[in-house]
Amino acid sequence: MGKLDFSPIADTTRRAEIVALLRRAILTGQLEPGQKLNELRIAEQMRVSRAPLREAMRELVQEGILTSIPYAGTFVIDVTAKDIDDAYSLNKVLDEFAIERMWPLRDQRFFDELDRRHEAVKQATRNLDTTRQIETALQLHGLIHEWADNSVLLETWQRLTSRLQMYFALHQRARNEPVPAEDVHDTYVRLLKGSDMGAAQRHAREHIELDFEELLAYARSLEQRTSKGARADRAGLTRNRPEGD
Amino acid sequence: MGKLDFSPIADTTRRAEIVALLRRAILTGQLEPGQKLNELRIAEQMRVSRAPLREAMRELVQEGILTSIPYAGTFVIDVTAKDIDDAYSLNKVLDEFAIERMWPLRDQRFFDELDRRHEAVKQATRNLDTTRQIETALQLHGLIHEWADNSVLLETWQRLTSRLQMYFALHQRARNEPVPAEDVHDTYVRLLKGSDMGAAQRHAREHIELDFEELLAYARSLEQRTSKGARADRAGLTRNRPEGD
DNA sequence: TCTTGTTAGATTGTCGACAATCTGCTTGTC
DNA sequence: GACAAGCAGATTGTCGACAATCTAACAAGA
């Protein structure tokens, strides 16, 4: 038989496209944290009715980068230092788990893909395209999760990644200078190709710790000024209440 | 000032109520895996238009217990042995992390809440209410995650829990006999009150392992018969594709 | 001046109808 | 009989309009 695999056909619903557009706008920082999303205005701009737009927003709310308050509006989530800290500490655990799981599954295809993504990061770095740099770096990092053959882990990591990407983008936006970070990933890639799993896990943990401190400091500095969308605080999250008691 | 705190007002949107109704139906197994959700029919039964229903469905899709295929329909996710395995192995990691984090945060309020939830499980067990038993057991288990003071962890665990609850409910449904499991949780609760964190972590891991094997065997037996909704396979999940290359 | 009630405007939530798409059946042709 | 084309029927996706709710400004009264 012919050994040609077709890629799945593109999503042809407006909803999916809206989701992609909005997500991109949020993750690149074009929509700022705390900002309110006016349905009517966005719908007009996109030449779309409010129905698919609202459905798209619901998805992003569940994805964790929007938050909705009934009859008040839907807002981009606020970035608190605690959130970043939480996300990072969990990410470390997930990384360790992912490496453990994917370690015996490494093969030539893995190494090739690893190099490919590493190259993409270097490319973006050369081009001084910081947005793309963040994106590719996270994709490089995500390979271990994709390769771990655990769909739940992958979903979890992708949710985490959305926020991390948003945090990084904001950080980059704040200070306009591009990160030099030329070959930060070299060690990471080398260790993933090596034979010492423990070393790879340790490096993943420390490597992350690195730019984390910087990011955290930035978030703390943001915390001072009062965000105009400050009332868009935690809503929902109380699924577990013991209703019958 | 008066020291009375009011609980937040109930969500008064139809959407929220629909979400709750649908989630309950799915998690208790009233809606079976692979089953298609006909929008028109459900909307009529609930006396609601399709708009809020569809928004509710979008939320549950992102929550991971429904899956949607454009122009084909929305289905309850299929339960594969691999999914259960994945969820459990990740859950073990999360438990360990949660215990580590909440350990220094334990106080009297924690112990009280622990006892309260433990009592709820025993109550449900006495009443032979298996659905409620599953629910309360998971709530007991969830306390460590709620107490870990990490919102991202909590969200992640709640997503996982949804599936686990669904799996358990299906399992219970299959074999009608209620689980004896009278005091399975006694040791768990005792260790969480004790001073040996490592022991608590170890127990959490092993205790889970217990009913896991049973559940997994059941899932494997299901895998034989062809589900009528079999084509409702993984859709989406490919957010990470490198679009510009 | 402070509080409370009222009202107008804007925004979100919901509805019913229409358009686009899929599925299965029928029909026609070889 | 096998197969492709085409035609209902049903279902999902989208639209425009209406209802419910919130916000802020303003007026009335203590």
Please name the defining characteristics of this protein.
homodimer, 245 residues, mainly alpha, Arc Repressor Mutant, subunit A, Four Helix Bundle (Hemerythrin (Met), subunit A), 2 domains, 9 helices, 3 strands, 4% strand, disordered C terminus, DNA-binding
Question: Can you summarize this structure?
Answer:
With 245 residues, chain A is mostly helical. Chain A is built from nine helices and three strands, in the order H-E-H-H-E-E-H-H-H-H-H-H.
* Number of helical elements of chain A: 9
Name of the CATH superfamily of the largest domain in chain A: GntR ligand-binding domain-like
CATH topology of the largest domain in chain A, which one?
Four Helix Bundle (Hemerythrin (Met), subunit A)
What is the string of helix and strand elements of chain A?
Answer: HEHHEEHHHHHH
| CATH architecture type of the largest domain in chain A | Up-down Bundle
Query: Termini distance of chain A?
Result: 61 Å
Overall residue-averaged pLDDT value of chain A: 84
Question: Which percent range describes the beta-strand content of chain A?
Answer: under 5%
| Main sheet overview of chain A | 3 strands, antiparallel
Please indicate the count of domains of chain A. 2
Largest interface: A-B, 49 and 49 residues
The amount of helix of chain A comes to 55-70%
What is the structural class of chain A?
Answer: mainly alpha
**How would you describe the shape of chain A?**
globular
Strand order of the largest sheet of chain A: 1-3-2
CATH class of the largest domain in chain A: Mainly Alpha
Cα Rg of chain A: 20 Å
Oligomer: homodimer
Keywords (chains A, B): DNA-binding, Transcription, Transcription regulation
Domain HTH gntR-type (chains A, B): 12-79
Protein name (chains A, B): DNA-binding GntR family transcriptional regulator
GO molecular function (chains A, B): DNA binding; DNA-binding transcription factor activity
